[in-house]
Design the sequence.
């Protein structure tokens, strides 16, 4: 049974389709693995064993009835707990939503159910997806399966750790400034942020609406592409969803896996080099780059002069949007309500609820965002940040006239020890130095393992033009074919 937890999603789907294993056996194996290791990893906030068993049984029955099923039918998946799941707790990692069971499914959840994926449960995250370590979860951190004293990245640390600990073959994340890719990098797994608008935001608990992008997390590039194909596509319920066909990401991943990148131009961002990743990360990235050139790719140095302003621009835009989005948590409409004794005024109940329900990082961002949007400061902060965003977008557009993709390390440093960056928010924000520019532009980006530094995984980031998600999968799969996947030490 335990072998089933080591297989790729593609392999599991084939085993289920051929009758080699039932969806029920596959689901039971993963539930058993969660029971075995999740007290140490804490990747899950909620395990829906009953729902998963029912979904698996339905797949097995449909298969025995001779129905032809989708390419991921019967494969288990973990879902970041910021995505609404009907009847299943959805907390966004916050006390303010404790006990909330959404009355509806997010579009991406609807699509996964329709494709026959089996939802195992909800994965841990920094509160409202704000953070880079999962330490800001109101329910306690997740631990990195590579070293349980270290962070698994964030905000989607639960989704990444579940993969690295073999608790799920696939998970879903959301990426606003790096929360799919950075956890992927520090856990030795694959995380892809689709083009903004390529995957529906309907049913996501909103953080920063002009940036939030759900996407796939997996242990192989092909698996990520398979899940991407299920999640993506136009959704009339999301006004920023793109009404265009999804590129053939699965075909591109398979093409890349043949290991031929002849004629592909990789842009190396000069400004990222100057900022500097730590030496071990830079070395592993260089090895990845060498591997890609051996496959025929050409490396071109590219200047993106405004990337150095991406972090400050993001930390005005994201908090501004969050201060507006989080206004809905008022103690009236959702979840927690504090101090409603019949005597207190509405404002007082609101304020007591928000004081008790939000953690320190969320409060910091609401305060920064409210300040940046206030009438006297709007032009100096929010307005200025939007101008910088336009300049960064122009850097990308100019770069993609010269190269096919941009490449960089995903993160400046490997998984850091728990507690080492919580005292100074700026140190935490630095984790997303390389991931944030492409969020401001809106293009797709993927992190794929490229090697180890001091025994810990390093991620290689590939960024592509908007709507060219297939291109990043091709390059990432080629890199994977050259350097292989990474396997952490056994936990038990
Ligand atoms: N670490 C970044 C932040 O704290 C990114 C978060 C995300 O992508 N959700 O905002």
Sequence:
């Amino acid at each position: 049974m335990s072998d089933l937890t080591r297989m790729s999603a593609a392999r599991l789907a084939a085993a289920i389709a051929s009758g080699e294993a039932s969806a029920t056996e596959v689901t039971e194996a993963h539930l058993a693995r969660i029971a075995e290791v999740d007290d140490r990893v804490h990747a899950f906030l909620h395990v829906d064993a009953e729902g998963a068993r029912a979904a698996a049984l339905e797949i097995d029955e449909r298969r025995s009835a001779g129905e032809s099923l989708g390419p991921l039918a019967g494969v288990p998946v973990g879902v970041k707990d910021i995505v609404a799941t009907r009847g299943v707790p959805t907390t966004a990692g916050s006390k303010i939503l404790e006990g909330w069971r959404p009355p509806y499914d997010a579009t991406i959840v609807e699509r996964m159910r329709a494709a026959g994926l089996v939802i195992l449960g909800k994965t841990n995250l920094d509160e409202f997806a704000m953070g880079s370590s999962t330490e800001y979860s109101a329910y306690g951190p997740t631990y990195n399966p590579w070293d349980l004293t270290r962070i698994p990245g964030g905000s989607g640390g639960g989704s990444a750790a579940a993969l690295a600990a073999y608790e799920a073959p696939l998970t879903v994340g959301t990426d606003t400034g790096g929360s799919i890719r950075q956890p992927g990098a520090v856990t030795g797994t694959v995380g892809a942020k689709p083009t903004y608008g390529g995957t529906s935001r309907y049913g996501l608990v909103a953080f920063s609406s002009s940036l939030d992008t759900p996407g796939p997390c997996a242990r192989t590039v092909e698996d990520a592409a398979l899940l991407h194909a299920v999640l993506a596509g136009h959704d009339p319920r999301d006004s920023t969803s793109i009404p265009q066909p999804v590129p053939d990401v699965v075909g591109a991943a398979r093409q890349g896996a043949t290991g031929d990148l002849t004629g592909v131009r990789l842009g190396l961002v000069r400004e990222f080099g100057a900022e500097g990743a730590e030496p071990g990360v830079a070395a592993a990235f260089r090895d990845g780059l060498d591997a890609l050139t051996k496959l025929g790719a050409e490396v071109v140095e590219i200047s993106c002069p405004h990337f150095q302003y991406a972090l400050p621009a993001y930390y005005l835009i994201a908090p501004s949007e969050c201060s507006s989005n989080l206004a809905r948590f008022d103690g009236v409409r959702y979840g927690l309500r504090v101090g409603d004794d019949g005597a207190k005024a509405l404002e007082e109940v609101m304020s007591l609820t928000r004081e008790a329900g939000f953690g320190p990082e969320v409060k910091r961002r609401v305060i920064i965002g409210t300040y940046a949007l206030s009438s006297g400061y709007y032009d100096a902060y929010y307005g200025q940040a939007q101008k910088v965003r336009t300049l960064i977008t122009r850097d990308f557009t100019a770069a993609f006239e010269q190269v096919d993709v941009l490449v960089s390390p995903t993160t400046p440093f490997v998984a850091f020890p728990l507690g080492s960056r919580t005292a100074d928010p700026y140190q935490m924000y630095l984790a997303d130095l390389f991931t944030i520019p492409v969020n401001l532009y809106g293009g797709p980006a993927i992190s794929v393992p490229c090697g180890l530094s001091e025994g810990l995984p390093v991620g290689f980031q590939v960024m592509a033009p908007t709507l060219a998600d297939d291109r990043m999968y091709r390059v990432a799969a080629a890199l994977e074919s050259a350097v292989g996947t990474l396997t952490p030490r056994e936990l038990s």
Notes: The two ends are 16 Å apart (CA to CA). The chain has a mean pLDDT of 96. Residues 129-132, 155, 174-179, 207, 318, 432 surround glutamine (CB under 6 Å).
